[in-house]
Amino acid sequence: MRVFSAVSIIFLSISFISCNENNPTLFQVIPSAESGIEFNNKIIETDSFNILTSEYIFNGGGVAVGDFNNDGKPDIFFSGNQVPNKLYLNQGDFKFKDVSKESGIEALNNWNTGVALADINNDGYLDIYVCSAMLTEEEHKKNILFINQGLNENQIPEFKNKAKEFGVEEPGNSMGATFFDYDKDGLLDLYVLNNVDIHILPANYRTKITDGSSLSNDRLYKNNGDGTFKDVTIEAGITIEGYGLGLAISDLNYDGWPDIYISNDYLTNDILYINNQDGTFKNKIKENIKHQSKFSMGNDISDFNNDGYLDIMTLDMLGETNQRLKTTLSGHKYTEYILNERYDYEYQHTRNMLQKGNANGVPYSEIGLMAGVAKTDWSWSPLFADMDNDGYKDILVTNGFPRDITDLDFGDFKFNVSRYLTPAQILDSIPKIKIPNYAFKNNRNNTFTDISTAWGIGIPSFSNGSAFADLDNDGDLDYIVNNINDQALLFRNTIDEQKEDNHNYLNIDLIGPPTKSLVAGAKVVIRFSDNTFQFQEHHTYRGYMSTVQDIIHFGLGDKKQISSLEILWPDGKYQKISNLDANQKVSLNYFDASTISFSELNFPLAQNKKSTIFKEVSKDIGIEFIHKEKDIVDYNLQRIIPHKFTQNGPCMAAGDINGDGIEDFIIGSSASFSPQLFLQNTEGIFSQKPLFTDEENMKYEEESIALFDLENDGDLDMFLVSGSNEFNIDNIEYTDRLLLNDGHGNFTISIDRMPVINASGSIVKTTDFDKDGFADLFIGGRTPFSQYPKSEKSFLLRNKNGVLKDVTDSIAPELRNIGMITDAIWADIDLDGYEDLVVTGELMATTIFKNHRGSYKKVNLTGVENLLGWWESIVKTDIDNDGDIDFIVGNVGSNNLYQPSDERPVTIIAKDFDNNGTIDPVMFAYFKDSFLNPEYKSFPVNFWGDLNGQSPIFRAKYNTFKSYSKATIANLFNEDELKGSTRLIGNYDKSIIMENLGNGSFKYIPLPTETQVSPINGMVKLDYNNDQKEDILLVGNNYGNEVFIGRYDAFNGGLLKNNGKGKYEFIPTSESGILVPGDAKSIITVNSAKSDYPYFIASQNRDSIRVFQKR
Question: Among 19, 711, 716, 1108, which is least packed, fewest CB within 10 Å?
Fold first, then answer.
């Protein structure tokens, strides 16, 4: 059932408590009767004021933790919507005293939202800035600045609203605010996050408002230093509209100046305001973030993986379970991509995003799917914090919405019958689903494990703002959550009670100067004897509408000694303390710091100063080529294919094209363009010329190119594989072409030296497989036009004295329809002197065909025969220097929705179910059924609307989205429908090493996690450090992935260093210099005529060629 009854909630709560008693969890809920915290953000709807009339009614309130009475214990402030704000003073031992009324902070006439804390007047007492929203009267939407007046005779802090006097009485329907020193003058300025429901179709594409005139524009207030603020919004460049819900400050380009990240709801893009160091900001999100959350909620910034780079998390609304997915999302259209480009929007998708930082100048890698944190339903507050003190930051997420207006059946119901019902009846028809909050434990490898239940966090609730704090000063972080229509949750962390000695900690208290505000933005790094470190930049407004405790907390795991602690204050002062013991609270005083040159700082307080291994040299050597291709919408024919087949290029090939003894290269084209020849001169400079000038030959699209000497006349001829599923089946544009070289780089098409091959191909590879002195060819087929996942024909061509003959059926019949080939390689795997053939492809195993000196036979037991992947590329190497041939095989990577395995494979069932001439490929993957039944089952991947778009037979099977949510692989089709269907399996997604064990058998090992973030499309081997071990350069991504998940774009190119032990170490872009951030398709090596160091040339679809050379 969709609606939890009261009995169900009580049962779940009792079960939760019982489980806690039997199996103690990391967090223990402190009951209100014990803590004294009875705050309940209760919201009452009426006929005239409800979710249907006011969509922000359930955006909730925040939590703020601070020591308001200076007694050394953190107190708690809750903002209330229809209820008063509450202030609870910490009495110790998790007991709190309600002093709200006496302190004067209730704000009874305001709908209070976000809360920011600061000692804004430097009097030694913490002040409170409370945002207001929702109410119609402007007077009741003005934000409040509660100035702390000190303690009264009862030792209770008293507050007065001074927002008007200070000039920060912002009436812009504010959701949050933060104090930070944007101009580094030692005074805290104020950024206010606004979200005005202006009802101008915020979910529809239109021209962005970027001049500051939008009603939903944020505000920046500069601190004048005299107790007043000035609105500098426009002059500072804060001019881009947005429906703001998340706000974070951090130095994201590592230049020492605070930048601003805004997460915006609806279609409005997130904003990354980079500080120009002159009092102005510029939005640089497009250069740094490749795609974003669509309905962005709260956000947080921290270094979760201890690599020294700041990471960003934004929350969205994607359901975890199949029931939630299928009842809240109807379908997706490629039109969104087209409109993104037309109206200059960045790409957005409905899910949480975890943006892994990679260094300044290198785009972030969005890895939320791989990390396991992408789906937490209607979520609000993310917080990075080391909750188990193991030395790595975990993630806490709040979620919930009292009226599930995203339920599609309700939407249909409302559309059809709302005119006949009262508002109360319509409200009663909206589902109510309490969903558990989430806790994710850091696995220390860029992934997380959902540990919500084991930690005691997963209580069903309608939760919004949250904060962490060490409420009892025991060295671990406790957790506070603001709930709608339930009492606030107070969680006590019990990690200090565990017997294991691997939960050490260090807390740091920052003491700034009395007349300046220099704590916000301080950077702290702690270093250990094993050369590891942890890094934090200190800001307290975090997550959603909330402020965390003003301490810096480090979990240390089993480390009991810190080699050094370094702090860089915002004004550049620096201090270092050596040899600190764990399990203590350390105070760092600004006056103990001294001035230091920025160049003297070490990473991560300053960027690495070392030169990169490689440099980009394309312009230096005359290469300024940008690949062009029409945007073909494959989904117009097969609506539910998992990715495009029309943007696989450009391919490349290297060789001495013009016979001058110097290596050149060719880059393939898309349809309507010509391949381009790049000829190298003796100075290592390239000149460009087209291969074709006639329109007829420019109709083709090259999927692969081979340069080889067909007739043994001493020059390189050319074979062009045609493909790309944008032509009708059997169209001439699928015909492969053979071009003969006149010895000077001039080519003519030969039609009498090869068979007619009309197939949608993917790859061509050459070798002399029969040792007759002539180069033979393998041509791999992908999939015919509109017939996915049917295998296209593959071909084995024997070269008989300069004439190519198709011998596939006679010597390698198993090869003809082996699968949807993406790459292949010739390799003598058993060192018998004859080249064997290794092919790989989509939804198939990497397969070896053994050369039996006259025929090819498939090797059945290879050690990888059961790894059915989405393989994209293969390269041969000798990883362990044992003299035999090993392989590196590129796969789709782990950053995908399906997370396939042997136990939970992806399955495609394909057939022309409606007999319209087009195959209907229905994909299934394993998802949790529902929160009430968390069993994993194989469900259709596609949403009901998408499946209906593929064929009307699916529309006839179901009447509601709820009924479709019960469709599984076992019941979607009946026996008659399954007759004649094709079934393919995918059970492995990681790129791997295939280590040769001899006798045609291999052992496989996944490549480093950093390479698993996207498909790997191209690889070359090299020995960049001259250690006699072969290293690997890689490129990847796939911008043609289906629309719902969107572009696989997390990879920026990479270098794998061979460690000599059968494994590789990933060298990050900041060190390697290999930066290929786009839709990279191939990489080749071209020897330089001028230097001993070769060129490594990478191609990108609809983007520039990048050329790298070792420094």
Answer: 19
